[in-house]
Amino acid sequence: MEFKDDGKIIVIIFEDGEDLIQKVNELSQIFKSENVLTVISALGMMKEIKMGFWNGIEYEIHNENEPSEVLGISGIITPNTSPNFHFHVTIGKRNGEVKGGHLISAKISNTLEMFLIKGNIAVERREEKGLKKLKII
């Protein structure tokens, strides 16, 4: 992983084989003085993708093991909360099929280019009905 921070925008280039969530945890430690980092763009490829669909009680897990194009990631990194991220992902498979859901885990395939914007709004997570919901403080 390589990144550059210009004070407002952070550009991150993830490398082949890296564990995306492990790298997000590392970024949370590096940028722990920030309240919210919002994904404004994320493109590349991932593999060994675990996505979830919240059915109101728990996540129904869906796996996609083959390399897939990342068509987009929307979400936030909140360095001072647990969990410290909330991403939804849309992927395109080799056959043109598109899938998506709550991103639980993934490994980078080839590369992933992500752009984040910094926000200075204090947040925390509070558990409600099994979910750790984001709250503004």
Describe this structure in words.
This protein has 137 residues and is mostly beta strands. 8% of the residues lie in helices and 64% in strands. Strands 1, 2, 3, 4, 5, 6 and 7 form a 7-stranded antiparallel sheet that branches. A two-stranded antiparallel sheet has the order 8-9. It is globular, with a radius of gyration of 15 Å. The model has no long low-confidence stretch (mean pLDDT 97).
List the secondary-structure elements in sequence, H or E.
Answer: EEHEEEEEEE
- Helix percent band: under 10%
Mean pLDDT: 97
Rough outline: globular
- Bin the strand percentage: over 45%
The residue ranges in which pLDDT falls below 50 over 5 or more consecutive positions are: none
Quaternary structure: single chain
Distance between the termini: 32 Å
* Rg over CA atoms: 15 Å
Count every helix, treating DSSP H or I runs of 4 or more residues as helices: 1
The chain-level structural class is mainly beta
Largest sheet properties: 7 strands, antiparallel
Tag the structure with descriptive keywords.
about 140 residues; mainly beta; 7-stranded antiparallel sheet; two-stranded antiparallel sheet; 1 helix
Secondary-structure map:
Blueprint: E1 2-5, E2 9-15, H1 20-30, E3 36-54, E4 59-64, E5 68-77, E6 85-92, E7 98-119, E8 123-128, E9 131-136
Antiparallel strand pairs: 1-2, 2-7, 3-4, 3-5, 3-7, 5-6, 6-7, 8-9
